[in-house]
Design brief:
The chain is mainly α. Helix content is 63%, strand content 4%. Helix 8 (203-219) packs antiparallel against helix 9 (238-254).
Amino acid sequence: MHPVLFHIGAVLVPSYGALAALGVLLALVLTQRTARIVHVDPAKAWNLCILSLFAALAAARLLLVAANWSALRSHPAWLLGLAMVHHPLLAGVGALAGAGCAACYARWSKLPFRATADALAPPLAVGLAFEQLGALAAGSGYGSEAGPGVPWAVTYTHPLAAMWSGAPLGVPLHPVQVYAAMAFLALAILLWVWLPIQRRQGDVAGLWLMGAGVAIYITELWRDPEGRGSVLQGAIDGPQIAAVVLVFAGALVLRERKRARHTAPSTIPYANQDAISDRAAQTGEGQESS
């Protein structure tokens, strides 16, 4: 594959960073649309995404610097190469930092929590799909060795794929990143279709948690276990444990909540809320004219 997208003089532009950045841009644009569907201020949703993204990147980089502090003190120039390092632990820490920042900003700006989470679910799935395509190009999170019955296997030959991601060279591997990208893209389409017609606020976010958990757990079956924190003698690894947590969290979000005696706004589909608002406005105008 191609871990380097192109060169600008002596500067390398990594494929992973370029595709991940493209996914972020698409997710930000899509968030503007989903925010309007769920009646959330698009400007505040944009700010939430930007702040959460910087929080996730900063947390992951700080952890990487802390883990390699002794080496970096002797070789400060290695700081430039930290952006090429990818690891499940870094992704987990970044995700927690981003989610915490999003929750704090939503509370501070008085955004409706469930509706905001619904608006973020489809764009986040799109962003993860492009991140996995970048991982495919870079060799990050590479798959297990593929047998002769896998004609779609990928083989890495670029030395930087081994240097940056530890991908084995000259060995046919399962393109597990493609499997994950397809799963996240399918999840994004499902959530996009479900968003205007859902019965309760928070259902789309719950579906995202469960869908992402299932996608991560299943695709891990084809990933090389190196550096992924095997547990129970290799029966399950770190990302799969996180996937199980996501599924249970999604189940809690989707659980049947007690209905109020009168239908609350959170139980009305977003598409129907517009119609109710229009009828209320028309009724008010009629009463004023009478």
